[in-house]
Amino acid sequence: MSINDLTIIGAPPPRLGAAFSVIADLHETFAEYAPGLTPGISKRSCVLSSLTVRDFLRLAGFDAEVRPCMFMAEAWDIFGEVQHTLGVGTPDWREGKIKRRRMGEVDGWRGHLVCILPAERWVIDTTLFQARRPTWPHLPGMFALPINPAPKVYRGMDALATLHANETNGDRLRLTWLDQRRNRYWETVPDAAFVRRSGVVRRMLASLGP
Fold first, then answer.
1. What is the mean pLDDT of residues 65-72?
2. Burial annotation 175-192 (CB, 10 A radius, 16+ → b, else e)
3. Cα torsion at 69, 144, 126, 90 (round to 10°)?
4. What is the number of domains present in the chain?
5. How far is the CA of 42 from the CAs of 38, 168, 192, in angstroms?
6. Where are the beta strands (DSSP E) in the chain?
């Protein structure tokens, strides 16, 4: 099921489904209720968007939290040959090699942030627009999908969620969210400030209603 740019994998309970309907308008709400920010920043800043979703869900009565991860997309052709790969974040957190000094580099925080609902076992990623490529133009910009029902290890890391799909050209696509909960340097970036998302959170809560 898709609502605007949000693709929902599975069937959420009604109360959570109503919250997803509000989250589907996240970036439009930022455009209208956070005019002081750089236009379109919510689609690029996983810290800003994931914290907004977390705050909204908490105020709506859910036990929500944010989780650092590494997002990976991989495509194979019909012969099983890898055609394209993409990663958002870095695998170096397996060895704890990332240093705080990297926060000052041009490429910013080396990670990816999502919102999770541990009790309901859902992952919500609202900033995959950056992962779109000509090779997979139909990749949704936002996902809500279940946490893997059983522990899975992929490339030496715990796979928080995994999705398999088929592209229109016949390629097979695998999307993986790899858990990197120790990568917490996102807490120091400017987009973590509540003032940047407060108006949007209030509007989303009003849109949800009683």
1. 93
2. bbbbbbeebebbeeeebb
3. 20
4. 1
5. 9, 29, 12
6. 2-3, 6-8, 65-76, 82-88, 112-117, 122-125, 142-146, 153-154, 157-166, 172-179
Structure tokens at 52: 């907004």
Neighbours of 103 (CB within 10 A): 14
Q: Which domain holds residue 126?
A: 2-208
pTM: 0.88
Q: 86 has which bridge partners?
A: 73
**Least confident piece of the model among 100-109, 118-127, 174-183:** 100-109
- Residue-wise DSSP of 137-167: TT--SEEEEEPPSS--EETTEEEEEEEEEE-
Question: What confidence category does residue 115 fall into, taking pLDDT thresholds of 50, 70 and 90?
Answer: very high
Which amino acid, 110?
Answer: R
Spacing of C-alpha 114 from chain mean position: 4
